[in-house]
Amino acid sequence: MKNVITKMTLLAASIAVSAITWAESNNDGPKLPFATSTHAERQTTDIASISRTKQSLTNEYFVILKQPPLALYDGGIDGLAPTSRLGSKHSNTTAKGLLNTKSLASKRYRKHLANKQLEAQNHIESRLKRKVTINRRYDTVLNGFVAELSDNETRLLQQHDAIKFIEKVGFDQIDTDSGPSYSGADKVWSGTAEHGTAGNMGEGIVVGILDSGIASFLEPVDDIFDTENLPPFHPSFTDIGGDGFDHTNPKGKGVYIGDCAYTPATENEPERVAEPNWCNDKLIGIVPIGVYAKDIINGDNNESRNRTGQDINGHGTHTASTAAGNVVKNVKTESQLGKGLRHLYQEDFTYEQISGVAPHANIIAYQVCSPLGSCNQSYALEAIERAADDGVDVINYSISGVATSPWYHAQALGFLAARKAGLNISASAGNSGAEGASSIRTPGNAPWVTGVGANSHNRGFNDKVLTLVGGPADFAETEYIGKGATSALPATEVVFASDVEFTGEGTHSHTHIHSILDEEKYYHESDDAHSYPASTLDNPVAYEHTHVHNNMDAYDVYGIQGACGEDSISAEAVAGKVVICNRGGRDTEGTLSRLIKGYAMHQLGASGLILINTLDSSETLNNDHHTLPAIHLNRKDGRKLLAWLDQGADHKVAINASNLVADDEIAGVMGGFSAQGPDSFSLDYLIPAISAPGVGILAAGIGKGMKDYRISKAAQSDIDFLYMDGTSMSTPHVTGMYALLKAAQPEWTPAQAQSALMLTAASGLKVIDDYVDGEYIYKDANFHLTGSGLARVDRAVASGLILTETFDGYMAADPFGDVPGMAIVDTDGTTPADPNLREEKTRVPAAGWHGKPERMNLASLSKGACDYQCSWTRTFTATKDATWNVSFSYLTEGMELTTNIEQISVRAGEDFTLDVSANLVGELKSVWSFGRVHLTATDSDIPVASLPVAVEFVAGSTPKDVNISAHRDVGTVVVEDVITVGTEDLTFTKSGLFKSEVFVGEVQRAANPTNLYLDYTKNDGLGFHVIPLAIPALAGRLVVEVLETSSPDLDIYIGVDPDGDGQMHPNEMTDIRFWSIKPGANEFLDYEQPRIGQYWILVHNFGDRFNDFQDDAFDPANLIIDDFKLAVSVITEDNDSLTVTAPKEVSREAEVAMKINWELDMDEGDKAYGIIKVSTAEAILDNVGTINVNLTRASDDVQLSLASNETEQTLAGFNIRFAENNTGQDRQYQMSVDLVAGSSVELLAFNASNNGQATNADLQDVEFSQQGDTLTWSYNHPSGSAAKTALLMVNYADVQGYIDLTPTVYSVLDNADKGEISGIAEPVMVYARPVFVLAATEQLVDPGSTVTIVASVEDAVIDNAQIRYQWSQLQGPKVAFSKDQNSITFTVPDNADGKHFEFSLIGSNGVLESKITTINISVTGEDVNAGSSSLSMLFFTIIACCSRRKLMPIAKNNNQ
């Protein structure tokens, strides 16, 4: 049988790392250091995919060698001097303190690395017996290369001594005014920062932008070499900025990088001619990497931007200008209307000035992303190396990939080496905030990278004032205050839209200039025939067209009067006027937006807009950027305005101009898209690191018509300046801050600069909590959203404290550093398995390794799974002489912070250590507790430093599973070991119980078990069985288990079924989400909170070595077909089949008195599953723990069986067995037994010996009560008791008929609402007394009448019965009667008036006699007054004798 390594190699060899930024992430599985989890039993959903590639198909792989790269080489090789900054004792650095990549030592070491890489390449080619294509080489921040290898080939190469690891190249995605001033940059520029530093705007600092390139021009360039006729350079990147600053190229005049410089041919790239006009002294380099250096833009071979790093996406240009774009004056921009592909419109408002955070810095743009935003990780690594070589000071990486532990991610490790080389890197946290906690991607989750979240800034506007001119002279109010972001308008005629809008009569026309691409999205039905000019998708033709329309009733179209929708008013009615429009209405996209109203009126020639709220609209007022002067008024003032318009004449209005003002009410709100911590792989360091403005950021675009035609029109980036949202926009704010910090504090290391920014970040960021009466309600944002807080560079440059961490310190904190294979999880408790195919390769932990991320000397404190108290130590370096006081603040309740010092005085350059403890002291109301440690200098000129603290206290513990062997359909079990930290609001969030659906089938043993794809495609899927699976929304748990199989090894895979057809197609193997592939066949997959969707379950018959065609023991005749039984449970909504009983208030560390109750109809052997999440407050989901409830229906706890049946004595014994009580509590039974009519109880006693063979000495009588044929008694079965049996002896001497003697046993446990009936599989049939019935010719007779009484056999009981009759007269005057087989006849005496006669019969079947059967005859007469009662008695007697009939018919003979 194969071991689990083989299995996981099978899976991992098929896995291709996802290239999608917003690939699914989940935090419920094990914390593994890779994006793809290999846990065989509880798999996380961020597994990438199972590849469809054949063994011969290659992919790009990083091959990273063990010898350190240039930035990390500390010496140790004879003849080669150290090259790292620290190893060389800073002798191998530039004047700016960066790594000197061009020194003699560096050149020699690079030559040494080149030789080692060639040796490794030769080894690979020798091992694989083929030439290997090397696409890129690295030697600065990583030592290695990118090679084209097949998935299977990588397994052959892992064991080479020189190879550190091999990792498949993945793809990342790009993540998409007043920002600089809101971040304090303006104060750094002027040197007027609050705490006093020399001013700088980034002069002399080089900012590297790794993105989609950069736009040098906003217009097409016919010939880049025709200097005289070039269009103007992009104003954000001109040599001389809008503030007059003339940039200096730090490399020298005319010395450029990339496209702008001559590039000699390399082994992979041809020679490139210099195109210097793409650059200038500001933009000193444009470097396309890889295939992006070969792009043909929009399929046009004559496009001058072909084969350059020019941006045709817009993302890179926007981020570059945000970080370091020039000061640009008098900026107008365009905005997008509506939710779909609608018009762009020119905003009316003019921004006096915008700029990047470091507007005087130089820029080098590295193009590592495609026009559609897919970013090759190997290109990014090459760009990092180039940046280190090009003298870049800070790097912006507004890109993220899948979540991976940064210690095991080539790109993240490259950033760490770059940090050691002196570069500071900012990376976006990602835009996956909608996924909730732990949604931050890599590399933004690396502690040596500044991961940045996004919040709103404080761009606000002054109040708008509407001034009334004309109208009634005595009108009370002539000025109204409103909102808007537009220019001013002098007194202008005003009209109400409702008075002039169309009512459905006549026609109107208007003329548009638009593209054929707009036709599909054009809104109106026209009555003319359109003829459009020829056009192609690649070259859309702009054209003018006049549309003639029937007038539509505006109210019918838009749902309100005065809506100001498109085509609702004639141009003649509003041209040159201010139009009053009602807010609200509807259009094809839903609500008719405010901006569309302004746009529609502007298109008709209106001069201004007044938007008024109505009774049916929201009452909020908005600073909308309309395309014409506008003001937004509230409902009350709108009514007054209309009242004024109805009176007098010559109505005009004036609107004042909008000006930018700081609005703190709208500032500091975290973007809903901003990804959240904690890290998916370690809870012991805080991410994101910090936040910055990333909502509504106005920055450079790429110009009209300059984007790639494949980019959706909705992504409006092809304009000069535009707004964009995203952590991509917040990240360059921090990058620009690092440029300012580098200029202000050049001696600070990147780690120190990051600590200064984090220590001095502003608190008070918030999130939207509610929306009430048109107003947003805010609450404090936690640190998993904000990181340390809002980055404020004006404080950071003057920070009085900094912290230092080193390359070795980061590496020592690797939480997986002691795990063999670098990323291995045990799938069966003993055998390792590895998704990256490192199999048996063991990583030796770095020197000084401790594996505790919380020990990194970071400017934040985080700890997961903190048991009542956790602690950290931080070492600070003082930059100024100061005395510091320590204090604390809290966002949440229940935590108390303490430190080892309350006050300390230090001098500049001195270090001190601060020990911080977090203690659980109160009730927890949230999963994580948040607070801050503040260090406040007595010198108020020094900024306050603070450390954010995030702690996940262990709020208690629960058993992981509660396994219930249910002996009845209704029951209760005590749950032990539930302990909490104490709460007054213990909360249980639960599902119901859901029975497994059982599937049975057959599947052939696989002929190619080690390759799923080939096994399926080459063997017609014979080794597979597919079962459709639907997972609804909010499913709590998925359980799949193999119940039975004849296969020696069966595996389970679950993949996404995108077409929902319930079948598995080969191309769908790329998205397998869960699996269980342990050795053997007892697979069990148990997964919490599976994602909604259509899936398939793949049952794969791995079999054994005899069915593997690659094995020497392969036997084609032994491809056996095995059967299987599979159980599938999807646990969804809550219902009453599972309930919890527990107190609401519990004490700290006291065991909770918790019971689980169930009520579910089940058969023996059925399985059912549920889930219970336990928390200390209703707002928290499961901070105490999650309990998986696993219920198997066992045999009944009360069982009835036949002990004996002694027919001669007419005695039957029954055992009532009570199962052992292992529930942890006493079981109180209320018992009820219904006996067969006519039987009697001889004995009810417990059998002390419990062996079923009782003696008198063993019996313990049971006290019971009897009413009719029903016995009742109570029984307490103590906790821990063994099984106990009660013996019930029944005498059935008086029972009649052929009848089942089994009593009905009904038991109710613990006063439940529902009891259970216990029975016997086979009935206990006995031949009891025969049954006879009597009937008379008349029952009420006259004196002298002749009466015949006839006996009939109701039940002879036995075959061939020998029937006998024995008659007797019991009452009345004695009469003589004659007998005739089954009857008697007599004559009533004449003097028997009013008398009663009673006769009896004892019948016999030859074996047993019947019970006495009687009949009454009444005689009429004066004193006869009971005739009716006699008849009633007769009727009753007949009913009584006929009410019990035999259960099994037998032949009778009634003629004896």
UniProtKB/TrEMBL annotation:
<dbReference type="Pfam" id="PF02225">
    <property type="entry name" value="PA"/>
</dbReference>
<feature type="domain" description="Peptidase S8/S53">
    <location>
        <begin position="202"/>
        <end position="763"/>
    </location>
</feature>
<keyword id="KW-0378">Hydrolase</keyword>
<dbReference type="InterPro" id="IPR023828">
    <property type="entry name" value="Peptidase_S8_Ser-AS"/>
</dbReference>
<dbReference type="InterPro" id="IPR045051">
    <property type="entry name" value="SBT"/>
</dbReference>
<comment type="similarity">
    <text>Belongs to the peptidase S8 family.</text>
</comment>
<keyword id="KW-0732">Signal</keyword>
<feature type="domain" description="PA">
    <location>
        <begin position="563"/>
        <end position="641"/>
    </location>
</feature>
<dbReference type="InterPro" id="IPR015500">
    <property type="entry name" value="Peptidase_S8_subtilisin-rel"/>
</dbReference>
<dbReference type="InterPro" id="IPR003137">
    <property type="entry name" value="PA_domain"/>
</dbReference>
<feature type="active site" description="Charge relay system">
    <location>
        <position position="315"/>
    </location>
</feature>
<dbReference type="Pfam" id="PF05922">
    <property type="entry name" value="Inhibitor_I9"/>
</dbReference>
<feature type="domain" description="Inhibitor I9">
    <location>
        <begin position="120"/>
        <end position="168"/>
    </location>
</feature>
<dbReference type="InterPro" id="IPR013783">
    <property type="entry name" value="Ig-like_fold"/>
</dbReference>
<feature type="signal peptide">
    <location>
        <begin position="1"/>
        <end position="23"/>
    </location>
</feature>
<feature type="compositionally biased region" description="Polar residues">
    <location>
        <begin position="309"/>
        <end position="321"/>
    </location>
</feature>
<protein>
    <submittedName>
        <fullName>S8 family serine peptidase</fullName>
    </submittedName>
</protein>
<feature type="region of interest" description="Disordered">
    <location>
        <begin position="301"/>
        <end position="321"/>
    </location>
</feature>
<dbReference type="InterPro" id="IPR037045">
    <property type="entry name" value="S8pro/Inhibitor_I9_sf"/>
</dbReference>
<dbReference type="InterPro" id="IPR010259">
    <property type="entry name" value="S8pro/Inhibitor_I9"/>
</dbReference>
<feature type="active site" description="Charge relay system">
    <location>
        <position position="728"/>
    </location>
</feature>
<dbReference type="Pfam" id="PF00082">
    <property type="entry name" value="Peptidase_S8"/>
</dbReference>
<dbReference type="InterPro" id="IPR000209">
    <property type="entry name" value="Peptidase_S8/S53_dom"/>
</dbReference>
<dbReference type="InterPro" id="IPR036852">
    <property type="entry name" value="Peptidase_S8/S53_dom_sf"/>
</dbReference>
<feature type="active site" description="Charge relay system">
    <location>
        <position position="211"/>
    </location>
</feature>
<keyword id="KW-0720">Serine protease</keyword>
<keyword id="KW-0645">Protease</keyword>
